[in-house]
Structures are given as structure tokens and as C-alpha cells.
Amino acid sequence: MESLQYWLGRASMLVWGLPTIVLLLGTGVYLTLVLKGIQFRKLGPALWLALVKREEKGAEGDITHYQALMTALAATVGVGNIAGVATAIAAGGPGALFWMWITALFGMATKYSEALLGVHYREVDARGYMAGGPMYYLSRGIGGRVGRLLAATFAAFAALAAFGIGCMVQSNSVADALQSSFAVPPLLTAAVIAVLAGLVILGGIRSIGRVAGTFVPVMVLFYLAGGMIVLLTNWRGLDDIATLVFRDALTGSAALGGFLGASVREAVRMGFARGIFSNESGLGTGGIAAAAARTRTAPTQALVSMTQTFIDTIVVCTITGFTIIGTGVYTRLDPATGLAYTGAPLTMAAFEAGLPGAVGGYVVAIGLSFFAFSTILGWAYYGERAVEYLFGLRATRPYRLLFVLAAFTGAAILQVGHSAGLELVWTFSDVFNGAMAFPNLVGLLLLSGVVARETRRAFDEKRAT
After folding, report:
1. Does domain 2-464 correspond to CATH entry 1.10.3680?
2. CA-CA distances (angstroms) from residue 347 to 329, 341, 363?
3. Secondary structure (DSSP) of 114-148
4. What would the pLDDT profile of 85-120 be if each residue is shown by its tens digit?
């Protein structure tokens, strides 16, 4: 077990190393230039399409624009928005939040491109549902032996990552949060998660879309409301928070209290790594959800899909980051351990500092549980589409049953305290989650001409006429 963990750890460091981060960010910068900054030019119309208009009646597809967006948000607004932001600030200082924003701003162009290609190359499966995503735009867009190899590679990595980062570690996070805050037995949490997830997942994308359309806005607004209350209690210091983020992004953080200080390099590294991990721009998952949307043109759904990165990082991660920085808990030591706060306990400490009594801890625990459960729903669909691409329609029902079993196991394992086994699952899934990026980024770069052409046809040429 220790040997396997060691080698998986080495693989994770390689997969999520500097070259990967540079490639992910570089692709976003390149696509931003190719698309003439579409994420800035079209953000207003995109938010209107996503949150106000919500659907194109009579268009071809399985779920509405809004439901497709909520399904993507379900998968990405997760543990990373609470624990990931905290880890970035704990290691890289307040400046890490600035670099998370940078990954989001350029990542919106990447997410737009993934969604456009996902819809453009989608096809109808044997059940009459839309199937799309990197598997399809790699095999159909690039074509030939290379395209098919890249597609199969992506699908294999996605299917494996779904059981880990999209399932077992999420259900374990729910069980851990509910046990520590409300003394709920992990076995009870495991049973409830398995039943609820099974009821939704077994119904397919339309069931997931309906539930996500209702559940995700509630969970996001609940968490944001808690964070806003914390910030309002410190409203006079909001200017100082923003100043600190921008200053430390360029100069690094000085040591203060329990905080050891961080260089600019560490702020950049942690901000990029956690930002990409949170919004998944470049991993290809956004194209899978977008392909199911009812839309007449691929660029229309692409606009809706790029708002997912904006909401995930610019909105939700910012609230988490501002509460941590505004309350100053990142500079303090945890009295229980004598060590600096990091991860979810850091976010919990920030909310507890800004809300009365134990309310702050409860808000984070409930928010973490909601976020993690929603991630299970979103990734269930991603994994199913990958498995269907590899093995055909007959494999989807056994996959759904296995996925529900994995969700139960991830939570139940906490009852017997097998933390080493869970750590192995975390590292294993982290490797394959990152590995998904390579074939997808190759596809985005090679098919960037298609993205630019379809965008011009939909927006620039329409405006000229």
C-alpha cells in the first residue's frame, strides 16, 4: 500500500506539475486571442442567456441551457471551493486568490471552446439522447487513428477519475463533515447518499438536469449568504482585502503570526493549481454537459457554459477567499493542533470568526456536504458518457449501479477508519483527473480554427448584417 501510494504521489506531482499548469493557462490565453476576448465581450449576454432566458424552446437536445449549466456547476462547485481556496491561501498567501482569478478569466475562453465543440460534434445515441464531449470532437473533429486514440485515452481517464474524485472522495467528505459537526454516523450518511444519488443517477441526464436545476442554486446561495454575512460584519475592511490580494500577488506575503509568508512564485503556483482544479477549464468535462443542451447553435450554448467558470471561481471562490483574508485566520495557529490552519478547517475557522457561536462551522459543514453531493451527480453523468463511448450502451446501467456502490463505500469507509485507503483513492483519482487534460488540450488547439469559424458565423457575421 505504501509503495503504491508513493508511486501514485510521484505521478500526481508529474501530472499536476508546472508544464501542465503552463499548458492549461497557455491554451486559455491562446483561445482568448483567437476568439478576440469573447469572455469579456459577451459575458453580459452569456449571463442573461444562462440565468434569465434559460432555454431555447423547440431546439434539439435533452435538457435546457440552464439545466446544462447547473449540471456542470454541480460537478465543479465542490470541495475545491471550500478546501481548495483555503489551501491556496495557506500556502501562497492572499495573492494566490488573484492568480485563481487569472485562471478563471482565461479559462472562460477554454470552457467556451470545449462547449462549442461538444455541441458541434455531438451525435444521437441508441436511446435518442445527445452524446458529446472530448471523446466525440477528438474522434470526429481530428479523425483518423490519432483522433480515435486521443478520444479513447480521454474516455478511459474520465471513467477512472469519476469513481475517485467525482464519487468516493466526495461522499467521504460529506460523511466527515456531518460526523464532525453533527455526530451523524458515517454508515447512515453512506446509506442516505447511496439512496438519494441512486434515485437521481438511475434516471439519466434528464433526472440529473432537473435535480441540479433546483438543488445547485439553493446550495450556492446558502453558502454565499453565509459568506456575505461574514464580510458584512467586516465591511470596513473590504478595500483592505482587495488591496492585500493585489499587492501580495506581485510582491509576496510577509510572515505574520502563524503564517510563514509566501513568495510570488508560490502564490502563482498555488493560485493556478487550485484555480484550475476548481473550475476544471481545460479538463474537457464542460463539453460533455453542454452537448446535452437544447440549443440551435453551438456558440449559444458555449456562451452559457463559460459562465460556469465565472460563477465557480470569480464568485464562489472569491467569497471563500475574502472571508479567510478578511478575518485574518490564515495568519493564526489552530489551538487544537498548534499548527497553521489549512484546507476546510481554515474556511471553517473564518466563518466561525465572523458568525456567532458555532453557526459558522455549521454553515461550512452543510455547504461542504451540499457541494460534495452535487459533484457526485455531475460526475456520474461524465463517467457514464465516457463508459458508453468505450463499451457501448449496454455498459451504462451496470456503471450506474457501480457508481452508487462506490458512493456508499466512500462514506462508509470512514466508519472503520481506513484513512490510508482513502488517501490512495484521492491520489489515484487526482492523477487521472489531471491526465484528462492532455488529450483534451491537444483537441482544443488543433480544432481552434473550427471554434473561431463557428463563433464568427454566429456573432461577428450576424452583427455585420
Report:
1. no
2. 9, 9, 10
3. HHHHHHHT-EE-TTS-EE-SHHHIIIIII-HHHHH
4. 988 898 889 999 999 999 999 999 999 999 999 999
